[in-house]
Amino acid sequence: MILEVAILNVRQGEEGNFEQDFKIASRYISAIKGYLNHSLKKCVETKNQYILLVNWKDIESHEIGFRKSKEYLKWKELLHHYYDPFPIVEHYETVFQNMK
Amino acid sequence: MILEVAILNVRQGEEGNFEQDFKIASRYISAIKGYLNHSLKKCVETKNQYILLVNWKDIESHEIGFRKSKEYLKWKELLHHYYDPFPIVEHYETVFQNMK
Fold this sequence. Notes:
Two copies of one chain form a homodimer. By secondary structure, chain A is α+β, with helices and mostly antiparallel strands. Chain A has three helices and four strands. The first copy, chain A, has helices at 15-29, 59-66, 70-79, and strands spanning 2-9, 35-43, 49-56, 89-98. A four-stranded antiparallel β-sheet of chain A has the order 2-3-1-4. In chain A, strand 2 and strand 3 (49-56) form a beta hairpin. Strand 4 of chain A pairs antiparallel with strand 2 (35-43) of chain B.
């Protein structure tokens, strides 16, 4: 399992529209083979900053399965214009977890 | 529920020791009232980069309950010397999640 992480900086004043469009766009990412779950979280300290967390079966499900899909074109069209700067996306593997 | 997020850059070559000490340090954070769960994940793209994710009942459990505790002194002693630069810690609230 791989966690995709992106810190998203949304143009100021567009947070409400972004959150609405994110909910719509969620149907596209969650339709992809190898997608496990995702969440969007809003930063307490920085009003227009968010974090996107997506669990994938493996990196290929994200980088090939999603990014080369027609669903990605819809995701991109709905969301990419909100970001400034454009986010860096990274992938993480679990080293340790305590889910008590 | 609040997610604490910190991107950790560990001094190169010290990743193995850091991971071991993180496991030891985990007992201190998980003993705090309001702590829910946590994980440490390793970046696929950048060898010495990690992400720490901690779920807390609320921000106070982290900022007061943990940071003013004697457990924090042990956590700090075990881990802080590995970081360069010293990490920025932020808190996030859930806007949307799909845990299918």
